[in-house]
Amino acid sequence: MRGIISPHDTRVPRVSPPAARPVRVAVTGLGAVTGFGWGVDALAAGLASGRSAIGPFDLFDAARYATQIAAQVPAPPASLRRLPGWAAWSRADRFGVAAAREAIASAGLPFDAATGRGTGVFFGGSTGGLLESERLYEAHRDGTLARAPRGPIRRHPVQRPAEAVARALGADGPVETVCSACASGTLAIAAALDAVRQGEVRLALAGGADSLARVTYGGFNALRAVDARPCRPFRGDRAGMSLGEGAAVLVLERRDAAETRGATILAEILAGGASADAHHMTAPDPRGLGAVRAIARALEEGGRSPSDIDLVNTHGTGTPLNDRAEYAALRSVLQERAPVVPLAVSKGSVGHLLGGAGAVEAVATVLALRSQRLQPVPGGGEHDPEMPVRLPAREEGARISAALSINLGFGGVNGVLLLAPAGETPVR
Asked: Which of 221, 242, 248, 249 is nearest to 350 (CA)?
């Protein structure tokens, strides 16, 4: 991810032609597990409907907290519960493996395709097997645990979902886990993009997975960052975020290799951009300068200008400060087009998946590019008058030649992906 600019320069740099045409990287497979259900079809149908998967949940007792809603993943189909290793996996592991298997199948590859192919796994995450560790501690605290089993302890680390995917699919390339707060999934996909371009891997399974847990749910309630109603990003009455869980995986490979094997190209990832606010542990830079730098780097690497952007899948948490800072960044980049470029706000549909958020939102962006249709933003209500943005109220056709997917995490960590439809030329 190149294209360094001055940390004090908020202008989007003029794009200059790269010295050599970069390797084109295609998305050939998608997999997803969200509050809408197990599979990309469930996610696509939910997004197109304008419904929200956020509501009451029963994974653990939330009565003690100020809010009692989240986007919980429903029970898995019986076919998945019969997979070897299912009983030993954490909830987040199961989400990641299911999404990876679906992505491999949708790419037209057999389930053992990863074996011997130099396949890498690049995952974002933040909770790992935290839910299972909480249950173990609860049993210990209540005196109902005679002897501590080792399984939940082994499943605790944040890198375990990526490792579970690698073992389940026989991936023999690098296994990398990015833990950079809410930007983790986006940065993991950017790392996979670089690995494919550099020839480090021939095939990349890129995405992220996280499950709901008491620590994160209670933590965001303690921060007063959650809304008692389903979140309403960029709306005038927004009051906070809504948490969700699940996973998403994209199969990335060189476009020429994908075409040689006759794969269907779903989209191209043109570039990734990253930056840090260097501002505050939880509050974003109110001017959105870090996000501007990340967007600028993605545009420069991808050979696109702000005028080429026809869709932005925003971070859009629904918290007053985050939405305001993100709008400031969009205004700096899109300038007079900021009120008219349509926004996708996936968190209003499936909640905030933390380390998996960027992965699900990348899949949602690919779906929009593939269908050339805008996904409605659930919730209704007027946008904040200080942030004039276009929030589609219903599914509608559009000409989307390039899209941004943005994630902004605690600590001021920013990640951006630049994507284009399968038929678009990546560099102008």
From this structure: 242
CA distances from 418 to 161, 200, 217, 299, 313 (A): 26, 21, 31, 7, 10
Domain 25-421, second-level architecture: 3-Layer(aba) Sandwich (3.40)
Q: How far apart are CA 248 and CA 255, in angstroms?
A: 21
| Residue 421 dihedral angles phi and psi, to the nearest 5° | -65, 165
Q: Which tops the pLDDT comparison, 18 or 305?
A: 305
Identify whether the C-beta of residue 184 lies closer than 8 Å to the C-beta of residue 409.
yes
205 versus 118: the higher-pLDDT residue is 205
**pLDDT tier, 238 (very low <50, low <70, confident <90, very high otherwise):** very high
CA–CA distance, 92 with 209 (Å, rounded to integer): 6
Annotated domain spans of the chain: 25-421
Task: List 31's β-bridge partners, or say none.
Answer: 249
pLDDT at 320: 92
Q: What pLDDT shows up at residue 301?
A: 95
Q: Which residues are catalytic?
A: 182, 315, 352
Note the residue count of the chain.
Answer: 428
